[in-house]
Structure formats: structure tokens, C-alpha cells
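Hi support team,

I'm filing this because I wasn't sure whether my run with zinc ion finished correctly. The job status page said complete, but I'd like someone to confirm that the output block is well-formed before I use it downstream. Pasting the exact inputs I used:
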Amino acid sequence: MLKNISFHKLLRFDGLWDTQRWFEPAFVALDAQGRVLSVTETAPDHTPAENIKGYVLPGHHNAHSHAFQYAMAGLAERLPPHSASDDFWSWRETMYNLAGAVSPEQMEDIAAMLYAEMIRHGYTAVAEFHYLHHDKDGQPYAEKATMGQALLRAAQKTGIKLTLIPIFYQRGGFDRPASPLQQRFLSQDPDDYLDLLEQSHALIATSPHAKLGVGIHSLRAASPEHLQAILRQAPPHLPRHIHVAEQQKEIQEVLQHLGQRPVAWMLQHLPIDERFHLVHATHMDHEEAQMLAKTGAHVVLCPSTEGNLGDGFFALREFMQAGGRWSIGTDSHIGLQPCEELRWLDYGQRLRHEKRNMYCFQSGDESGEIALRQAILHGRAATGHHETPLSVGQPFDAVIYNARMPLFAMAPPTQRLSAIVYTADVSSILGTMINGRWCAKDQQHLHQDALYEAFSRTLQALRDTP
Ligand SMILES: [Zn+2]
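And here is everything the job wrote out:
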């Protein structure tokens, strides 16, 4: 059958896992746009294939990013002045100072460096939870989506597939107006936000691989009425993202002002369903975890950031036991390795419960396989890519792990995914392909030198800013 198909190139890999099964070896035929025409274990007759010594997995989708925060990764790891302890809230002050200083050009340089690094680590798409909307004085740019445009240009430079999620942010807290440092984030009301969403839609419509999402910052940053109005009026097919229950202080505030725990309040007052992606949901009680899982909604977990910020432990066992779905994000970008996120998530639970293999519920369950299936499939729901990865007709977006590494090559196929999840780092990756083309190879992004230079220049300029 394949002989009759005219294809652009034929690749041969040692193996390919499409989230359902392994193909070993795997012959992948691609068309000129890098879409999959076929995946088979036998070669088409007399057709020369390019041999790549690697194991193919669907590219990772990063379900939660604030790109600008990459500029401060590693620079908040000491106690603040005149303080003998540190927490999320003082970290946030440092982050707000950075947010106040970034120009659209600097945003583009930071995001381009970050996205190139994501690609090098095996991500092929990113959901950008984007709330830095206005100029440094808090005034809207002449083009409202100017900052979104900078993020889109960064994505286009690097090859990553961007899902732009403009965020509704209205106030500083339940009984607080926004502080001067929060002025760049604000929408006046739902109409103002929906206008920004519309302009962002027009922007991403110019790019064949970009997508749009709808987002609310958190219960503390939006009034219930406005939150409900936005969810009613936003296009129904878009994924819906919101931060929730990350910190105990937030739980106490929501209890005080809304009379319920945050996830419980959302379940009762919002039309929560499979379109929703609740970011963190760290502090859920047993009932919230069970009820949320039953709605089909997703949770986005960001284990390296949550660990860095001292957030707490997610109720993974309760949520998964009830059939809960989750994906991973890198949030503040203190860590950029997808397998590290999956390890952190499992190890946190192992330490907490003094047990092993916390993704598993049945005898014979394989941790790596369960973790990757959750992250890969539900990461795609979070970015609005609903197609089955690596299937016929879909773009060949893949991360290729090195099949020369004995730990991967010698692992039984049923355990190879765990060997990857629990031992891999970026040096285990041969490269990352997006639309059938290498965007990173041999630990280098295609445009690495230029991106390093622009990013370094921007970091210097931000540091020189008084
Ligand atoms: Zn976040």
C-alpha cells in the first residue's frame, strides 16, 4: 500500500511509542509538510530510509508557562534582606519587580531563549499563561495584544507551537485593589478582557500552528461575577486555564470571602468540565479531589516550580484513584526537563507516603508508561491539540531519545519508558523534531548562538535598569 503513496521522506528509528504501543523498528513516512503518512514496522520495498539511532516519543506539551519569569530563574535562592525565612509571597515581590521592567522586545528575547531550551529538552508545544499585557506605566499598548505578539514571534523563531492564553486579572486580592506593581496585568472588566481575547485571536490566526486559550488568573484576582461572565461569553471550544489552591494562605482567604475551599467553590459555581485545566490545585481535600476528577477536568502540575516555591504536596493518589487527569508545566522555569517533572511528582508522593511507584494502582502497572501517557495526552488537551499524537495525518512532533544508551537499548520494551522517565536528562536526547524537521539536535537548538546573544543582552539591560 505504501508503494502507492508519494512521500517526502522516510525515516527509520529503533523504536517509536505512540502512547498505545511500541513499533520496533519504526519506519515513518512523512509528507512535505512533515505530516505522518504511515508508521510501520517493515520497510516499504526498495525505499531507502534515513536511519536514526533513536527511540521516538510524542513531543512533550508544556501545559503552563510564564515566559518572562525565566529571566530570574536561579536568582531568588537566598533569603531576602532583613529576613530569616522566605516563602512564596516574598518570591512574588521579586517576580513583580521583573514583570514591571520587561519591554516587548525583551519579552521576545527571553521567550525565544526559553522556548529554544524547551525544545532542546523535548517539548514541542507550550501553553503560555500570559498576564503581562500593558506598558510599564500600566497603560494599554496601542495594539492591545502587543506582548502576545512578542511571545508569538519568539515561538515562530524557535519552532515551538504556542498556545496563547491571555489572562483576566482584575484586582490585587479579595479586599484589595491592584498594587502599582500589578498595573500591567489588569483588565477593567469582562468586555475589556474579551476585546483582548479577540485581538489575540486575530493575532494567532496569522500563524498556522498557534492556538488560543481563555484564562483567569485566580479566585483572588477576579470577582465571581466577572469570572462567570467571561466563561459564559468566551468561545466554548477553547481550553480554560486558572490557577487554584497553590498556597495555604489562598485557601484561608477563599474560605473567609467565599465561604468554601477554592476547588469546592469552583465545582459549585462554575461549569467545570473536561475543557478546564486547574493549575496546581495543590491543597485539595479528599472530597475535592474525588469530585474534581469526576467532572473530567484536568489539573496542571508544575512539580519543580511547586517544590521551588514550597507550595506543598498535590493529592495525587486520591485524584488518580478517582480517574483524575493531569499534565505537567514548567511555570517559573526553574526546571525544564519533562522527565524531571515526572520524577519530582512521583518522588514527592513516595517521600510523603513512604511507598514506591505512586502512579501505579494495579499489579504490573509500569510507572513510566502511566506518567508519560498522562502528561502527553492531557498536555495536548491543555494546549488545545486534540489529535492523537504521531497518528496518520498529524504533524510529526517528536522527541528522540538516544538508542545507543545501554540503559534504554537493553531495557525490555515494557520497561523502556520507565528507564527513560527515571534516568534521562537532556544528554539522553538525540534531538527534537517539529513538523518533521529537526529544531534541536545534539543538544543544540538550530539558532542557539543568536538566541544566546539576544538573551544575554536583554538580561544585562534588565540588570542595568535601576
Ligand atoms: Zn503559574
